[in-house]
């Protein structure tokens, strides 16, 4: 059964689905609870490129709880199925909560280092896990996640699923489902 979307989110997804421009989709800091949502967004919009800027299973804080690695591996396996089934060109930047060996196992040649700049249809995208990875890079857009910081020409994947349409360079954000920040463990930020 598909997820029911708020009207505004549905309108943005319909607009993206009807666009004949090249679509770059950007996500970051994804807890397992949003994998199905991400799959449905991919199915609806058919992106040509997908960028994940780290913390692939953000509900599992591997940096602080290394004993959770078996759960982390299972989660990354699920996310890999969702992202790879899209047929889009993938770019995956490992984050502080990621295990590099596991990320490489499931994403191989799609893995890029923080601070990598890629060019898609003449548009330069700086890719990093944190804003510090990209803030000083020469790029048209800076894609990152990790926290809620906003920077010039930056698209923060914690705040929502970002889309860049090329060649127009128009950007859109689709909000994650309610409860995503809680699933990430951001209880303190929400005042809980």
Notes on the protein architecture:
With 192 residues, this protein is α/β, with parallel strands linked by helices. The protein has a domain at 7-112 and 157-184: 4-Layer Sandwich (Purple Acid Phosphatase, chain A, domain 2). Helix content is 29%, strand content 22%. It is built from six helices and nine strands. It has helices at 7-18, 35-45, 69-84, 100-107, 131-134, 180-184, and strands at residues 22-27, 49-52, 89-92, 116-120, 123-127, 141-144, 154-156, 161-166, 170-174. The protein has a five-stranded mixed sheet with strand order 3-2-1-8-9, with helices on one face. The chain has a four-stranded mixed sheet with strand order 4-5-6-7. Strand 5, helix 5 (131-134) and strand 6 form a beta-alpha-beta unit. Helix 2 (35-45) runs parallel beside helix 3 and helix 3 runs parallel beside helix 4. The longest helix is centred in the middle third of the chain and has 16 residues, at 69-84. The protein is globular, with a radius of gyration of 15 Å. It starts with 6 loop residues before the first helix and ends in an 8-residue tail after the last helix. Mean pLDDT is 91; it is low at 1-6 and 188-192. It holds the Pfam family Metallophos. GO terms for molecular function: hydrolase activity. This is Metallo-dependent phosphatases-like protein.
Question: What characteristics describe this protein?
Answer:
hydrolase activity; four-stranded mixed β-sheet; 6 helices; disordered N terminus; five-stranded mixed β-sheet; alpha/beta; 29% helix; disordered C terminus; globular; 192 residues; Purple Acid Phosphatase, chain A, domain 2; single chain
């Amino acid at each position: 059964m598909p997820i029911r979307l708020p009207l505004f989110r549905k309108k943005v997804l319909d607009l993206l689905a009807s666009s004949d421009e090249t679509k770059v989709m950007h996500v970051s800091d994804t807890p397992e609870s949003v994998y199905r949502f991400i799959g449905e967004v991919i199915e609806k919009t058919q992106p040509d490129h997908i960028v994940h800027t780290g913390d692939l299973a953000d509900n599992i804080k591997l940096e602080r709880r290394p004993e959770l690695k078996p759960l982390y591996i299972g989660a990354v396996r699920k996310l890999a199925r969702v992202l790879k089934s899209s047929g889009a060109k993938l770019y995956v930047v490992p984050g502080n909560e990621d295990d590099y060996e596991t990320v490489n196992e499931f994403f191989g040649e799609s893995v890029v280092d923080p601070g990598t700049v890629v060019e898609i249809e003449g548009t330069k995208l700086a890719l990093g896990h944190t804003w510090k990875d990209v803030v000083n890079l020469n790029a048209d857009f800076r894609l990152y996640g990790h926290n809620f910081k906003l920077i010039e020409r930056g698209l923060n994947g914690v705040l929502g699923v970002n889309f860049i349409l090329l060649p127009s360079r128009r950007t859109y954000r689709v909000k994650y489902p309610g409860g995503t920040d809680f699933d990430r463990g951001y209880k303190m930020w929400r005042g809980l």
